[in-house]
Specification:
The chain is mainly α. It contains eight helices and two strands; from the N terminus they run αβαβαααααα. The chain has two domains: 57 residues, no CATH class; 94 residues, no CATH class. The longest helix is centred in the C-terminal third of the chain and has 19 residues. The model has no long low-confidence stretch (mean pLDDT 93).
Length: 183
Amino acid sequence: MFRYIGNKIKLVDAIISKIIMTIGYSGTVADIMAGTGTVSLELKRNGFRVIASDIMTYSKHHLVTQLLYNQPPSFSKLVENYKDKFDNYETIIQYLNDSPEKKGYFYNEFSPDGTPANNFKSRMYFTSNNASKIDSIREAIETWKNENLISPNEESVLKHTLIMAVNRVANISGTYGYYLSSF
């Protein structure tokens, strides 16, 4: 389950039924405000060709991962360049999880020990350890992208995985509008 305002999970059956009533059991459907991809993924599962878009960057990563892949990509360039560290998606994820924490953007902006750029009080969206782990993983993905070791779609798979993991440790009640007052 995605933790974002607008998730259509409770409406998806009604939406799919209406689409089937309108165009039948096959065809192309455009999901122009796809968000987390809940409706797009269900359309794909029902055999429709899906064109999905959204203005939000996180949405792109979810949509690429869910609509273009049934299994993780090979990460062939990355694996070739880091043979001694990993050989597939699972070992890449383990490498990222084991990487040392770094104090960067997420640490400064969203942890209790950080110093937000706007000079407001620190925030508690993530523990300081989790925020610095997010920074470490984001930096590794960005480095691999800049070194052309991962394709744009592979970048999306890694960022989608990170977003999903971050949702599990976020100190929020439902969405990222506010954080809880204690961990």
